[in-house]
Backbone:
């Protein structure tokens, strides 16, 4: 199988974690594929995914795209990654929050400058997501590692990669504690986000900060 891959993509990382968890990593050849929301679509990915997005997994049965579809297909019987309505809810929350972070970063690159009402909206939504996860930290710790956790790992990884000054671990200590157990998993350590393209974190500096909780 061939996987259109990037070491920076949170959605590709979901697939990579799933490959590790299911023991199927050796079945896949990773092909570095560059995509950008504000540039013309890459012809290489368009040949396999008409949406021009990664990840895309080329199999003998056809091409699969969208990380949720690919991860579900890789763990067909759900034996290794716990699947439930709650897991799918966390997955939807994490994927949606990740989309906000990526759209926010793209907005910050606008030549004429970002539209403030839009970035303010992004900030409010991300803060609400983090508050929700902090409130559900114990439940996240109590259930088996599953698709929802995979998506949350990748969302939080994107916070660390693109928004390194946001201070989320201090602001949300219960979430940070359970996230530390996920970060210890071999599949998560092996798929840590890598910058192979000169990512500019100065774009996001000061754009998103969380205040430390007070007793």
Residues:
């Amino acid at each position: 199988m061939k996987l259109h891959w990037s070491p920076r993509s949170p959605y590709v990382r979901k697939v990579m974690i799933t490959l590790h968890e299911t023991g199927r990593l050796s079945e896949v050849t990773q092909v570095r594929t560059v995509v950008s929301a504000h540039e013309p679509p890459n012809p290489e990915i368009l040949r396999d995914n008409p949406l021009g997005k990664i990840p895309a997994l080329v199999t003998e049965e056809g091409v699969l795209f969208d990380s949720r579809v690919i991860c579900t297909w890789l763990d067909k019987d759900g034996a290794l990654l716990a699947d439930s309505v709650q897991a799918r809810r966390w997955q939807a929350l994490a994927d949606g929050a990740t989309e906000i972070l990526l759209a926010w970063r793209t907005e910050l690159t606008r030549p004429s400058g970002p539209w403030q009402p839009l970035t303010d909206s992004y900030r409010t939504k991300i803060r609400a997501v983090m508050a929700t996860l902090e409130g559900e930290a114990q439940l996240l710790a109590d259930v088996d590692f599953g698709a929802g956790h995979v998506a949350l790992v990748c969302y939080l990884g994107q916070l660390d990669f693109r928004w390194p000054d946001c201070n989320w671990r201090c602001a949300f200590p219960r979430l940070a504690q359970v996230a530390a157990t996920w970060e210890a998993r071999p599949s998560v350590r092996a798929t840590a986000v890598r910058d192979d393209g000169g990512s500019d974190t100065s774009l996001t500096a000061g754009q998103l900060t969380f205040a430390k909780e007070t007793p």
